[in-house]
């Protein structure tokens, strides 16, 4: 068992269990199992909006939906998602 404080350890780390607090992954990371998170910051989905075509309504100064909008999904991830 190694116990160290304020240690600078280089090389590879292999572990079967444990806890990491306040760590930074500077480059790519591959997770081969399930990722579970209680807080996530950043983009998983990029939302884009587009106004729907409208026409003049029948009651004064109103508008009603009229026409179609085509939505194209560009998926750069190889896992299933619901939209």
TrEMBL record:
Compositionally biased tracts (Polar residues): 59-73
Domain Tip attachment protein J C-terminal receptor binding: residue ranges: 48-83
Give the residue ranges for region: Disordered: 58-83
Entry-linked InterPro entries = GpJ_C
Compositional bias of kind Basic and acidic residues: 74-83
The stretch of residues making up the signal peptide is none
For this entry, the protein name equals Tip attachment protein J C-terminal receptor binding domain-containing protein
The record lists the organism as Escherichia albertii
């Amino acid at each position: 068992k190694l116990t160290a404080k304020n240690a600078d350890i280089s090389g590879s780390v292999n572990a079967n269990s444990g806890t990491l607090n306040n760590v930074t992954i500077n480059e790519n990371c591959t997770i081969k199992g399930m990722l579970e998170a209680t807080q996530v910051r950043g983009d998983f989905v990029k939302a884009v909006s587009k106004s729907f075509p409208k026409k003049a309504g029948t009651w004064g100064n109103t508008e009603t939906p009229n026409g179609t909008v085509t939505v194209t999904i560009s998926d750069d991830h190889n896992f299933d998602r619901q939209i």
